[in-house]
Design goal:
The complex is a heterodimer. Chain A has helices at 2-26, 44-55, 62-76, 82-100, 106-131, 138-166. In chain A, helix 3 (62-76) packs antiparallel against helix 4 and helix 5 (106-131) crosses helix 6. Chain A is globular. Chain A has a single domain, classed as Orthogonal Bundle (Arp2/3 complex 21 kDa subunit ARPC3), CATH 1.10.1760. Chain A is built from six helices and no strands. By secondary structure, chain B is α+β, with helices and mostly antiparallel strands. Chain B is 41% helix and 23% strand. Chain B has five helices and twelve strands. Chain B has helices at residues 2-17, 27-42, 46-102, 107-128, 280-287, and strands at residues 135-142, 151-154, 167-170, 173-181, 186-190, 197-202, 208-212, 220-222, 235-238, 250-257, 260-265, 274-278. In chain B, a hairpin with a 4-residue loop joins strand 4 and strand 5 (186-190). Chain B is globular, with a radius of gyration of 25 Å. The termini of chain B are far apart. Classes of the chains: A mainly alpha, B alpha+beta. Chains A and B meet through helix 3, helix 4 and helix 6 of A and helix 1, helix 2 and helix 3 of B.
């Protein structure tokens, strides 16, 4: 009985990040707080993808990352394929960092996250500038990247606690 | 040196091509697929438009259903707050009422304001009076805020004759225009979006300008005549110069902030539940 319960808890824990990723993409819930502080907005999807691919890739498949990106594009009205590309770049950098890093701490995660945000948003910027008629404010993009970076440790702690709490297995 | 380069190549190759425990697709395959979708979507084609339209309708409906508990929760929260604060609010309102009774109203100011408002009502009626059948009421399905795009999704699409570029109003005031049409839903670009540019006319003076969104709450007036001085609280209307928007739809009032002429919109973009889409094709046809 205890084993069944443990397995159930572990499976439930494993699906949590996927559900959160889809939920953020499909619902009205957003991480834009301009009503409270004009420049405050961050990309929680990047944080989820980077953290879980880096820490436990068995929890978050690249297929889910791709589909969440497609949904996000439809909801946001962006050219289709933009978000999947940026998400997959984040995922790729996380896989790369995971392969070359021996011991992972909050600080190594946090500072390597800059590379992921930089390349993902650079790609977004290039695609928007060259292939879309939509205008974007560069400063907004910068603030979004900055706050995404600054909020990483907070979510790192939350996700770490979540893993501890639900006993999410780690597949190395 | 060459060994480290080899290692780098191996890691990159492994990251792109390897499939792990729950990875059914390689990263390389998915990146290529995303690139292909982006490429196909960038160039207009009938097949892609139809696919996107079906996908949009499906996702918007799912999203609307998924969001309904959150909306219900917000509604419940508002109701509870309303009940909790009714007593204190009543007290404040009573005091305010007393103060107001004591004050003398500035009759001249009110008269001018009244005239302005009458004008606004008349103008909006002109645009709509003969065309009560030519506007469609649509429910706001989604108003997910993005740091880069200010748009909403409404519950009516090409099935009821909505087309790209049609103006959208809320309680007679301009809210935005249609930028994407699906069979059952449409996307409205709000006036405060960075991509929004609307030709307007300034009340009384008859000066033309462009109302441009900047991604902030209030859009600004651009291309005003050189040396032109504008005072606050002047109402701006659509000029109809683009041939798409009917002239005379009230948009908002001018205010000054940081040396810029901004327009405080009559229709608050954050408080939209229902909007009307003006079927301008039939309005224009009826006119000419």
């Amino acid at each position: 009985m205890a084993i069944i319960f443990k397995n159930f808890r572990s499976k439930l824990g494993n699906t949590g990040p996927i559900i959160l990723l889809y939920f953020l993409s499909i619902t009205e819930i957003d991480t834009q707080f301009s009503n409270y502080f004009e420049i405050l907005s961050f990309n929680l999807q990047f944080i989820i993808i980077y953290y879980w691919i880096l820490r436990d890739p068995s929890v978050l498949g690249n297929g889910h990352v791709f589909f969440a990106g497609i949904i996000n594009d439809v909801i946001m009205g962006l050219p289709m394929g933009t978000s999947p590309l940026t998400y997959l770049i984040t995922s790729f950098i996380a896989i790369y960092i995971r392969s070359v890093t021996v011991k992972m701490t909050l600080f190594t995660d946090w500072f390597t996250f800059i590379i992921a945000i930089f390349f993902a948003n650079l790609l977004y910027f290039i695609l928007m500038l060259n292939f879309s008629s939509l205008s974007i404010t560069y400063l907004d993009l910068f603030y979004n990247s900055l706050f995404t970076f600054l909020f990483y440790p907070l979510f790192w702690v939350i996700f770490n606690s979540y893993r501890m709490l639900l006993g999410v297995r780690i597949h190395d | 040196m060459s060994a480290s380069r080899d290692d780098f190549g191996i890691v990159i190759r492994s990251a792109l091509l390897q499939r792990g425990a729950r990875q059914k697709f390689s990263l390389f395959f998915l990146i290529c697929l995303s690139g292909l979708i982006f490429f196909l979507d960038s160039f207009p084609s009938k097949i892609m438009d139809r696919t996107r339209s079906i996908l949009n309708d499906g996702i918007y409906t799912t999203s609307s259903i998924a969001t309904s508990p959150i909306r219900g929760f917000s509604y419940l929260k508002e109701k509870i707050e309303l009940h909790i604060f009714t007593y204190s609010e009543n007290k404040i309102l009573k005091e305010q009422l007393k103060e107001f009774k004591k004050k003398d109203f500035k009759s001249e100011y009110l008269l001018t304001e009244n005239q302005n408002l009458k004008k606004a009502i008349e103008s909006s009626q002109v645009a709509l009076e003969n065309n009560t059948q030519d506007n469609i009421l649509a429910k706001v399905l989604l108003d997910k805020e993005s740091p880069f795009l200010k748009s909403i999704i409404v519950s009516k699409g090409s099935r009821v004759g909505i087309k790209k570029g049609m103006p959208v109003i809320n309680e007679g005031y301009l809210t935005g225009k249609i930028i994407e049409v699906n069979y059952l839903s449409s996307r409205v670009l709000l006036l405060n979006d960075l991509n929004s540019k609307i030709p307007i006319i300034v009340e009384k003076l008859g000066t033309h300008a462009i109302l441009s969104g900047f991604g902030e709450k209030r859009p600004r007036l651009e291309y005003l005549p050189e040396g032109f001085e504008l005072s606050e609280d002047i109402i701006v209307f659509t000029s109809g110069k683009d041939g798409i928007f009917p002239p005379g739809i009230p948009v908002g009032k001018t205010i000054f902030e940081d040396g810029e002429v901004e327009v405080k919109l009559f229709a608050d973009p954050d408080q939209l539940s229902f909007v009307n889409v003006l079927l301008t094709d039939s309005i224009m046809e009826a006119k000419f």
